[in-house]
Amino acid sequence: MSKPKSPRKVGDREALAVATAIRGSAYKLNLVAGLIRGRKVGEALNILTFSKKAMAIDVRKVLASAVANAENNHNLDVDALVVQEASVGKAIMMKRFTPRARGRAARIEKPFSRLRVVVRELGDDAAEATGKDRA
């Protein structure tokens, strides 16, 4: 008597990786995630490797995890993978206090963010999915 298997959260030719607690604001993380949306995985990894943004390190780790999931868990071709989705959301807000003048205190908020990366294997419909080969 085990639980029924939960359905997949992505399509048959897709793989997913999620980071639930990336230290930094969702705005800064979304700037980096926007660099890789819709690009091939090799190109996206190069962009993240040489980016000057500090959040690029965490995004690269999540993308590498999605590629590893695609290869090991779903038997997808790594060379044909494209970043289908890179969505960002807010997670927890860590709250701290610092002393100020005249016995007051000021709140310091340290945000955390979530990142969800979905990679998709392109097949025969590669030109339609990327939209780059339009004449």
From TrEMBL:
UniProt entry tagged with the keyword RNA-binding: yes
Gene Ontology, cellular component aspect: cytosolic large ribosomal subunit
CDD domains: Ribosomal_L22
Pfam families in the record: Ribosomal_L22
Gene3D superfamilies tied to this protein: Ribosomal protein L22/L17
GO molecular function: rRNA binding; structural constituent of ribosome
SUPFAM superfamilies: Ribosomal protein L22
Keywords (A to Z) from UniProt: Ribonucleoprotein, Ribosomal protein, RNA-binding, rRNA-binding
Single biological process term from Gene Ontology: translation
Subunit record text: Part of the 50S ribosomal subunit.
Family: Belongs to the universal ribosomal protein uL22 family.
Record's function text: This protein binds specifically to 23S rRNA; its binding is stimulated by other ribosomal proteins, e.g., L4, L17, and L20. It is important during the early stages of 50S assembly. It makes multiple contacts with different domains of the 23S rRNA in the assembled 50S subunit and ribosome. The globular domain of the protein is located near the polypeptide exit tunnel on the outside of the subunit, while an extended beta-hairpin is found that lines the wall of the exit tunnel in the center of the 70S ribosome.
Protein name, as recorded: Large ribosomal subunit protein uL22
Species of origin: Polymorphobacter multimanifer
